[in-house]
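Human: Respectfully, please carefully check these tokens:
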Amino acid sequence: MATHDGSRTVDAVQTTLDIIEFLLERDGAGITEIANELDRSKGTIHGHMSTLYKNEYVIKNDDTYRLSLRHLDLGETVRDRLQIYDVVTEELDDLSESCGELAQFAMPEHGQAVYIYKSAGENAVQSASSPGKREYLHCLSLGKAMMAHMSESRVNEIIDRHGLPKYTENTITTREALFDELEEIRERGYAFDREEKIQGLRCVAAPVTTKNEIIGAISISGPASRFEGEFYEEELPSMVTRSANVIEINSQFS
């Protein structure tokens, strides 16, 4: 099987990965449900599940399979390799406490934003984001802050791969509009999400760079009813850019 970039994949491995992604999405499922969802025979799925169970990557309760705690070990190992993790968590905790809202940090990987850490202040809204969750870049302040520091060719590669799916009436859905937005972000140093992913939710984000390369972005999110006027346009951008700068400085000694 050839992928979009011309490389080849192994069908059996792809099926196993599809199963893991499906179990992550549904928090558990049976053989029949998995087979129907992935358009595979029950015999094929049963073979994959038996292998995953034998290697302790899934657990089984009655007829329902779920991901095992072995995945926690994998996640912790990857996180421990992020040298700036402790710096990020400390700064985000301070930021969320000072502004009372939801502070988040994400890094770019495979053309998407991957959430690494989030910290909730006393007035923070609930969020579906969690460490490891991936989102498209074009509809997030975090994502646009990172894209603004990528080359034009890299941004085009990301659009070619993931598209510009629409979520709300405010979502950017054309290359021209996106590149115009990225230019504005570079000029002012921070990005806005004006209800582009979720109606009623606004965010502001600043990029985190090292040696002129983007390593991530930090954001503050909250309801449109609070995120308006000077607070949204000036105070929050000042806070998030300050925190980004603190992470950049401290990461040099982490």
In short: The two ends are 42 Å apart (CA to CA).
